[in-house]
Design a protein that fits this description.
The complex is a heterodimer of chains A (383) and B (530).
Chain A (H helix, E strand, L loop, with lengths): L1 H22 L18 H34 L15 H29 L7 E8 L2 E6 L4 E5 L3 H7 L21 E4 L4 E7 L4 E5 L4 E5 L5 E5 L5 E7 L11 E7 L1 H19 L8 H15 L1 H4 L17 H4 L2 H10 L15 H13 L11 H7 L1
Parallel strand pairs in A: 1-5, 4-10
Antiparallel strand pairs in A: 1-2, 2-3, 5-8, 6-7, 6-9, 9-10
Chain B lengths: L2 H5 L9 H6 L4 H29 L10 H36 L7 H20 L25 H29 L12 H32 L13 H35 L6 H14 L15 H29 L8 H24 L1 H7 L3 H31 L5 H28 L13 H30 L42
Helix pairs in contact in B: 3-4, 3-5, 3-15, 4-6, 4-8, 4-13, 5-6, 6-7, 7-8, 7-9, 8-10, 8-11, 8-13, 9-10, 10-11, 11-13, 11-14, 13-14, 14-15
The structure holds copper (II) ion.
Copper (II) ion binds next to loops of chain A.
Chain lengths: 383, 530
Amino acid sequence: MSKPRTSMLRTLFLIVVSFTSMLVVTPAWADWALNLTKGVTPISHQVYDLHMRILWIMVVVAIVVFATMLWSIIHHRKDKGAVAAKFHHSTALELLWTAIPIAILVVIAIPATKTLIAMEKTADADITIKITGYQWKWEYNYMGEDLTFFSVLAADSRAVVDKTSDAKPEDIDNYLLDVDNPVVLPINTKIRILTTAADVIHAWWVPALGWKRDAIPGFINDNWTYIEEPGIYRGQCAELCGKDHGYMPIVVKAVSKAEYQTWLVETKQKIAEASSGADREWTLDELMARGEGVYKTNCAACHQANGEGIPGVFPALVASPIATGAVEDHINIVMNGKAGTAMAAYGAQLNDIDIAAIITYERNAWGNKVGDLVQPMTIQATR
Amino acid sequence: MSEAAVHDDHHDHKPTGIGRWLFSTNHKDIGTMYLLFSLLMFFVGGAMAIVIRAELFQPGLQFVNPQFFNSMTTMHALVMIFGAVMPAGVGLANWMIPVMIGAPDMALPRMNNMSFWILPFGFTLLLSTFFMDGGAPAGGWTMYPPLVLQTGNAFPFLIFTVHILGISSIMGAINIIATVFNMRAPGMTFMRLPLFVWTWIITAFLLIAALPVFAGAVTMLLTDQYFGTSFFDAAGGGDPVMFQHLFWFFGHPEVYILILPAFGIVSQIIPTFSRKRLFGYTSMVYATVAIAFLSFFVWAHHMFTVGMPLAGELFFMYATMTIAIPTGVKIFNWVATMWRGSMTFETPMLFSIAFIVLFSVGGFSGVMMSITPVDFQYHDTYFIVAHFHYVLVTGAVFALFAAAYYWLPKWTGHMYDEGLGKLHFWTSAVFVNILFFPQHFLGLAGMPRRIPDYAVQFADWNMVSSLGGFAFGLSQLIFVVVVFKCIRGGDKVTDQVWEGARGLEWTLSSPPPFHSFTVPPKVTEESAHG
Ligand SMILES: [Cu+2]
């Protein structure tokens, strides 16, 4: 009995608090965030200052206009015996309230133009990162470093979304704002950031950097950043990109230049290790174990963890003609995708072992039991 | 019913039965149908909004899956824009323009019938997509490719709906222009037209200029999908951003198509209840023309983040900022109309005052977003969701409520229930702010729009917003009660209805005869507008 009562009390409390908090802004309530972040780059500081300047100008204009109205509403009412005046135009007044807004706009436009010009100066960067949006993950390519990896929603959040865990959003650290592989960037370095996409339009947005930019298939957008403080900065895809638009977060980890260099070396090593062994025979158990993990990060968003898909939208794999039919067709669709649908070409995204593992897993999980296993070498041969 | 019978309905001999409505060529009956249809769509779109706010009440997925959530946001927008706000504006135009300019009916009565009856078919088509393979459209009402091309079987139905609703609107626009240009009573010069008529002529021209571009753009989507073209496919040499340019070349004027009639309504009501003539009539007309003209040069401010060249970003920033100037003139003129008036605060006046205040709030966030470098932060967050709901709900929809209360006594001959009207106003005005104001905070704190689930740091304001949403939704039932009570009966009203009202509609009986002004009235400067 006590549970619904407390939630009702909580609701009531929220209503009361929301009203008072509109008047009293207490920074201690971090969750009742009200304002834009100042961010951690010179550009984000400029953007924040511009935002505050315009906000205050608007507040002043609002006070003047609304106070005039309020005065009129209080004093010029019929029940107070007010008699309507006869005037109905005044050229001087009308010119005045055309001129004042123009002046205000000019005052805003000057710093805005300066900031915008600064934002577009992408030349002379020390390093360049190419970011590609996919449904629904981000790919980071450290140009000139031979380092490319994907970054997807962290497994603990994914489990809550898929309802495969009993955890509640509030039990998880950074629910929906955490990833498996954060993008690591050095501080005090001019970083050029290129955005593009592989399927539909996405937008890469980390508020602490002060901007967002669309990632558009077939086009490359040019941006830059210069992070001044080490730390972890979180963001999300900001352009509707289909079903899991809300589930493709971004995590930037800003570290010192030295740490960045160490990280580069270690990460390249890890990736090399993960794709080694493609030239040996794998057992069914090995492929199934690896396949389950790869399936969860890459396929479960659409086809679901139980392989049943979403009727009418994303096809089921359980007993499906592809997953239980000829293995060549199965390899073909996973490698090359299906045009006009959300099914991507994974040949370009995953290594041979992962693809072999996914296909093997799909053919033998959830009672599919086709029994055949696909070797990484078979995948290699199709490339 | 035979054709002769439809034609034979002179004086107050009304056709009867279902035929009166199906074959109607009478501007009042067609206006009534438009208004009732838009009320129905307001609740259909509202129900979708309730689903959205219920899902966002707490973090985590409670009621719907993400795909269906996207269908909800997409369909909510399409239904509200094309089903509720636009038809309500056309309905008011149908009812009021002939009686405001002293004409017996609309210039093209049969086209009028067709432009209304297309709507129910259009929306049946659109809403039927919920039952199709792949579900209802879920790529956003903006229909950006390549995402929209992933729509299931609903795709061609979406395009076809846009086409036929566009045809309906263009026919409506032609009719309004033909009526105003040809059927004004003697002495009703253009500069004596009531502001509501002025805003509607300009809206009609916007419709005719903007809708064909939209129809063209969605046709290109259709050929990209089924006929092998690559207008918007980079792999085939096309450009997905081109669609956005075409869409917003329509989409920005569309915003003014929704809001200009609202400006007109408020310009009628404020003088009536201030018992004082509209301040700066001429500058109001010029400001409306200026806003409409500028609306064709600012489209790219909806897409600052696509990565335009610096010169383009600067141009669209400056052009957008200038819109604040004529809009400001309108706000100041309304305040100056109230100044030293003799005001009373019946429901239409309350909604109009709330319109001025809350539309201005939307205007302020609008100016903030015109600043390109800062818009890179605001874009596609709940800040913009708050902004456009302030201008479209507390703006356009509040003005439509004001119009309904203002003219209901004229339409029905009965005074509506003022107590219930005031209750509707106060509940709406309070809850709409609890619904939308916190969304500014959510957007600034970093919550993107169009997401079915969110990080826990956004939980508090989302819960407040949802509670406001449920209460606002419930409050709208009061309006339905008021309308139907008023249609069924109530205190008889005079022809004048409101003490301070001016203009031709108040010289007619309440309700007006089935055919008004069979003899054209004489219009003088004094009797012209409010
Ligand atoms: Cu995305």
